[in-house]
Specification:
By secondary structure, the chain is an all-alpha fold. The protein folds into two domains: 498 residues, MFS general substrate transporter like domains (Growth Hormone, Chain: A, Up-down Bundle), CATH 1.20.1250; 30 residues. It is built from 29 helices and two strands. Strands 1-2 form a two-stranded antiparallel ribbon. β1 and β2 form a beta hairpin. α4 runs parallel beside α7 and α25 runs antiparallel to α26. The N and C termini lie far apart (54 Å).
Length: 558
């Protein structure tokens, strides 16, 4: 009789061998998931085209021979396109994600392309059609954002907040990148080049991102049991790289503009190699450590399915409870009818309206602010770069709640409140000393930092409070405050701007009246500062009302 063959498995189990290297196919699938995130980063880095409006707004005003109020309506029209951003959610119901991506690229191509033809005097269009082209360009930005949101949520279900914070942060780097391209092509070229870049670059980047975007999400893309640890290491590495990119673009470097631009492009391509390098480093480090020590911590990742099961059971029991008492709690999925009946939503809406939206309108007026203070167009470009760079840094900081959850018991809405504090301070600083160049740059940096954090954290807050599955529609409902705020704040600024032209502080440039002097925006800064204080109070009330929600989310998580 032959000996039994069941005597070896116990012996092999006692040896607890080191884990085998991941198979190439599994590793490739894991890497392809990260290429989706990198593609979303590229899309965001090329589609923050609304931030460079102030770089060419003065020339657009001169060519069209319009007043400051009518120029403000062009900025409002661009933001008004965002009010139709919900249409991208419906488009996803009928078209693939790649189709929505190229529809956004086509809208941007036409919207900014028409404006470039107008400002370059190739064609002459009535003012109304220029308004339509601005709206189409603004709508394209919302469609791009929706594509990136869906990619992050589909491919990073358990860490979508980290993915969203990282991806959205790169939207703030667009003006600095476009400024580098402008300087590399010809520093003395007309500002109309910005419109040409806004039209062509997103279309080109969309073509590059097509292959990763078509990658289908997989329920199990991990090459090993330690995937959650590897994911966290990759996210940390990508955030560090993003921070390096921020400082690289912010601080002047003794390089020619073409070399400076080449370095920025390399920093945007480098994230493709980060997942492979991090995984290889983690595997080699684990292999060099004692086997029983490293394997003892894998249990944390092995318990993750149990956590998900517990969360699923909690969700199912909550669903049954809601069916019994017909009440939807904050943190559950919210339809539009439920959303607009929530006091928390309106506090959130007001905080965003009086915080991030004011920062966006301020950035749109940077060209006129610099012009009114007698500064050159290069100074205006510097202010745009400062705003965008610190907005980028603020967007990176929006991931702080995810990295510091165990050290600081502060909810995401609490961080939101803290992020709003620099905005009123900056406006009051501008009102007190608007003529000092260093003061303007410092205040611009503070407003960019604050608004960048708000823009990036808003998606995760919307997901936390009103449901992850409804974030696409609910977030687009939230940002309807942008065109409203753009009109209200822009009208206040233009009205006070033009009222000062009657006091003798004016000049005429190409038949358009230009206000000159610190009084042009003095009262505007005071009004904006007071309104941002109101937004700060609203965000604090939101923080107080939602602490229990985040406590419940933390209990479900752990």
């Amino acid at each position: 009789m032959q000996p039994p063959i069941t005597t070896k498995p116990p012996a092999t189990a006692e040896k607890s061998p080191a884990p085998e290297p991941p198979r190439f196919r599994e590793m490739l699938m894991w890497w392809r998931r990260w290429t989706v995130l990198v593609a979303a980063i590229w899309i965001q880095a090329s589609t923050g085209t609304n931030f460079d409006f102030s770089a060419y707004s003065s020339d657009l005003k001169s060519v069209l021979q319009i007043s400051q109020s009518r120029l403000n309506y062009l900025a409002v029209a661009s933001d008004l396109g965002k009010a139709l951003g919900w249409s991208s959610g419906f488009a996803l119901s009928y078209f693939p994600l790649s189709g929505v991506l190229f529809a956004a690229a086509a809208m941007g191509l036409v919207g900014y392309g028409v404006q470039w033809f107008v400002i370059s005097n190739f064609i002459t269009l009535p003012y109304f059609l220029v308004l339509v082209s601005c709206s189409l360009a603004g709508l394209s930005i919302c469609w791009f954002n929706t594509v990136c949101f869906v990619l992050c949520i589909q491919h990073f279900t358990s860490s979508h907040s980290l993915a969203l914070s990282l991806v959205v942060s790169f939207n703030g780097v667009s003006p600095a990148l476009y400024n580098l391209v402008h300087e590399s092509i010809s520093p003395s070229s007309a500002s109309s080049l910005y419109l040409l870049l806004n039209s062509l670059v997103p279309f080109f980047v969309s073509a590059l991102a097509l292959y990763p975007v078509t990658t289908k999400p997989s329920l199990d893309t991990s090459p090993s049991h330690g995937i959650s640890r590897h994911d966290s290491h990759v996210f940390v590495s990508l955030n560090v790289l993003a921070l390096i990119t921020c400082f690289y673009l912010l601080f002047p470097i003794s390089l020619s503009p073409p070399l400076h631009l080449l370095g920025a492009i390399l920093l945007l391509v480098l994230p493709l190699s980060i997942p492979v390098l991090v995984f290889a480093f983690d595997y080699l480090l684990r292999d060099s450590c004692l086997g029983h020590q490293s394997s003892g911590y894998v249990i944390v990742d092995m318990d993750e399915p149990e956590i998900l099961k517990g969360l699923a059971s909690d969700l199912s029991s909550d669903r049954k409870r809601r069916e019994e008492i017909e009440i939807v709690k904050i943190g559950d999925e919210h339809s539009l009818s439920l959303l607009i009946r929530r006091i928390e939503f309106w506090l959130y809406y007001l905080a965003y309206f009086c915080g991030g939206t004011i920062g966006l309108v301020y950035s749109n007026n940077l060209g006129q602010i610099a012009q009114s203070l007698g500064q050159s167009s290069s100074d205006a470009k510097t202010l745009v770069t400062v705003f965008s760079s610190f907005s980028f840094f603020g967007r990176l900081l929006s991931s702080a709640p995810d990295f510091t959850r165990k050290k600081f018991e502060l909810t995401r809405t609490g961080w939101f409140t803290i992020a709003l504090i620099p905005t009123p301070i900056a406006f009051f600083i501008l009102a007190s000393s608007p003529t000092c160049r260093m003061t303007i740059q410092t205040a611009t940096a503070m407003i960019g930092l604050s608004s960048g954090f708000i823009f990036a954290s808003a998606v995760s807050i919307t997901s936390d409070l009103f449901g992850r599955n409804s974030v696409g529609v609910n977030q687009n409902i939230l940002i309807t405050n942008i065109p409203i705020g753009s009109f209200v704040y822009g009208y206040i600024a233009s009205y006070l701007y033009e009222s000062n032209t009657n006091s003798g502080t004016k000049s005429v440039v190409s038949d358009s009246v230009v206000c000159v002097g610190k009084e042009c925006y003095l009262r505007t800064f005071l009004v904006w500062g007071c309104l941002s204080v109101f937004g700060l109070v609203s965000s604090f009330l939101l923080f107080v009302k939602t602490r229990s929600v985040y406590h419940r989310l933390d209990q479900n998580r752990f």
